[in-house]
UniProtKB/TrEMBL annotation:
It is an enzyme of class 6 (ligase). This is Formate--tetrahydrofolate ligase. One of its GO terms (molecular function) is formate-tetrahydrofolate ligase activity. Its EC number is 6.3.4.3. The keyword Metal-binding does not apply. Keywords: ATP-binding, Ligase, Nucleotide-binding, One-carbon metabolism. The keyword tRNA-binding does not apply.
Amino acid sequence: MLSDIEIAQAATLSPITDIAGRLGLSVSDLHLHGQHMAKLTQSTVNQLHTQPVRAKLILMTAINPTPAGEGKTTTTVGLTDALNLAGYKALACLREPSLGPVFGMKGGATGGGYAQVVPMENINLHFTGDFHAISAANNLLAALVDNHIYHGNALQFDQVSWRRCMDMNDRALRRITINQPYAYDTGFDITVASEVMAIFCLATDLADLTHRLSRMQVGQSTKGQPIFASDLHAEGAMTALLKDAFQPNLVQTLEGSPALLHGGPFANIAHGCNSLVATQTALRLADYVVTEAGFGADLGAEKFIDIKCRQSGLRPDMTVIVATVRALKYHGGVEVADLNTENLQALSTGMANLKKHVDNMRQHFGLPVLVALNHFTHDTEAEVALLQSAVESWGSSLHVCRHWAHGGKGALDLAHAVARMAQQTASPTLLYQDDLSLPDKLHAIARSLYGAKDVTFSAQAEQQLGTLAETSRGLPVCVAKTQYSLSCDAKLRNVPEGHTLHVRELRLSRGAGFVVAICGDIMTMPGLPKQPASHRISVDANGRICGLS
């Protein structure tokens, strides 16, 4: 059996100009990055955004992830290929992979098997340099803060809240001390969790990007007044660093479907959606746009709607929830080593996690839902039948997908069902209103979506609640918690009851337009596992990358 990278390297790719042509774009609309990658020019994006939206927006989400894998990106690619194979005009909108998981635990994020976006190696590594530009802009601001203090501190910094970032897992950088011109404690976040990344993904255009960057709070003065990036005259230079990166990236799937990959925040510690500018562009280039939100629906889908849609006015037409038999058995108590053995009892128990996400999407967000079963070889007929019967009893439908092995033709049933359902009129809603207090918003998320009995706050978070009471008014909340559980305890599988969401810290992201609530033991700078994925990666004598998956 070929590995993902071997499948990708064996593929014959179309020139990216041909892919663009299928969208009605010409060479003059592109900044080429070789034969198979391109950026859409800013003038082209601006012109497209004056046109009316033509596409149906399909939100791809999933159950809570497990070590068994779910395949949300793979299913997004498979569905896009299947829609195009069925005669619809479809385009995928995905996030760019971060180097953190590529070299860490997860590996790459370009799909798998015969449902991948390519060129796989380029996308998973440096791609077009967007993340490096975001890191540079973030760290320029950090340098300007320290430089200002060094040269006399005219703004009278008393506290510095701005943190540096790097697109790599490195737990040693979580806490650092800056020793000149005076000592203060700070640290690094991974680039995908930075406010600059969030702004990059939520800004509507270059002017909005500059404005949001200017509004970022970097510290507080001795008089208790906020100090902004604009006080350091940083926003112009930061925009200059981000200007080219801000143009969406165009690539293709193994079957030649077009895909826009742009931005890449993690949904467990950030808002987890691709860039708004890419999504808005895609909606004017195709009839169906399939976009994913990170991790499970409790994180990515909630933030897609309550942050991205709230700020932009976007509304998805429907959602697809991805599950696997293996992952549901894991939620039902089976350990990884035994997941290939039929276990109807564990599957029945673990289905509660899927049902919770289906109910959440319907009841709290008003979205029509389909369930995509990402099929594995060891799934038995009895297991599939049991799951199909359960999903139908919930008033939804299950579609068995074999896109990993067969590409688009393995997801045709799902594609036709999506095309039918997307024509229905949906009335999606937000989970909470703008005017609620920050604690009330957290209670709404924790109780409605997570099934928590309560929300508690550390002493630090309690103090921050008082400080943020006025400045957070009207802002949505971005919950940073483990992706592995509906709770903030990664060990609690399935649908835990009676748990408490514990808020450890609150961070105001003024420019991005939300407040981050850091819960449980989640870290905004991940660490590497004992056996990182980097151990498998190498380059052969011909310069071909090996072991990337």
